[in-house]
Amino acid sequence: MKDAGSGPGLKQAREKMTAAGVDPLAIEVFAHYYRQLERGETGMIPESTIDPLDMPSIDDVEVDPGAALQALRETAVIKLNGGLGTSMGMERAKSLLCVRRGLSFLDIIARQVLHLRAEHDVPLPLIFMNSFRTSADTLAALARYADLPVDGIPLEFLQNKEPKLLEKNLTPVGWPKDPSLEWCPPGHGDIYTAMTASGLLDTLAAAGYKRLFISNSDNLAAVPDLKLAGWFATSGSPFAIEAVRRTPSDRKGGHFAYRKSDRRIVLRETAQTLPADSAALADLDRHKFTSTNNIWIDLEALRTALASRDGILGLPLIRNVKNVDPGDASTPKVVQIETAMGAAIEIFDGAATIEVGRDRYIPVKTTNDLLVLRSDVYDIGPDFVLDQAADLVPFVDLDGVYKLVGDFDKRFKAGAPSLRKATSLVVNGDWDFGENVTVVGDATLDGSRGRVEAGSVLGS
Q: Would you say 164 and 183 are in contact if contact means Cβ atoms under 8 Å apart?
């Protein structure tokens, strides 16, 4: 592809990516979106261009057990594992966080898959999309599971990286103080480029696998499900996303809709929503469903789509403006070119969504979520699947002093309180928690500094 009509920024970016050893296909994908930025495209999806979307529930679907088992036998599992958990103060793979009893996210994911293999006698390869920063730690943590790799199938492939661009002129930013801050990931939509460039798609097809189940490693509820595998395999759909009903906590998050112009399903992210449409984004009665990022893909349909587009699916652009140092608002504004994995739903004819329960969507994005996961709200059974033991999942809002995992752990040295009977826990100020603390109903702690003594019962 030629850079005709492009300013010096794209040439500089190409040279920088080539020097860093970025795969040529990833460079062409970056160039595709760079040109869109030059044309002034923002990737915004105005409310006036979409209609609300409804969908069937997996609870109302009948699936033949034999077909479901065969579908699972032909499925490979991919976990997105490139995140460092920087928003929680981590500098290594977020999936290395301890969940409970010395088990990390990675431990539980590995054991979930090993259990399913044994229970159903299926190969079910498990593959991680790592970043350069998470690869070594992840592989070291998984080394204890000698039976996890499947012959001929890699345990990982690497996502790509791209330069951050100065907002004022779209040239690659230079930051000698910390050169690593000059780079960013291209969003999880990069998975399609990374799978192609690494040869993974061809490897899986040659080994006889027909479909992929992809999900985030921080969502331990995203287990390769027998019924969902059977539904997808018999649906005839090339691409499907599991969706959940939006709750008040999802008001600022993305949602599904129909595009009026062609009636295709689209996934509108928050960064693609105009400020004037923020009320519509937050309207849970209008836009009822959000994505779990649990995705099912027909492998041959994906390979065909990529081949017909020269390896560039053409996902909608997400123009993300940040500071070159995310922790310092005084540093220059940069544009990060991103795409979302789920946005590929609009690429495929016959793509589908299916409603699932919240028991398949338990992401951990903050220490609020981590406290719930470490508490007794969920049991972890012999199959290593999270089972909700509480009547409801409580609302947790911890003070800013708990935002970073290191600070969070110091204040819960004796472990998480019991939240099984809690409705909400709001902590204002800096509180240390003793052992065997129980929260019942609604509880609020106020004060600049305090301690919750061992055995305390909070709330009503």
A: yes
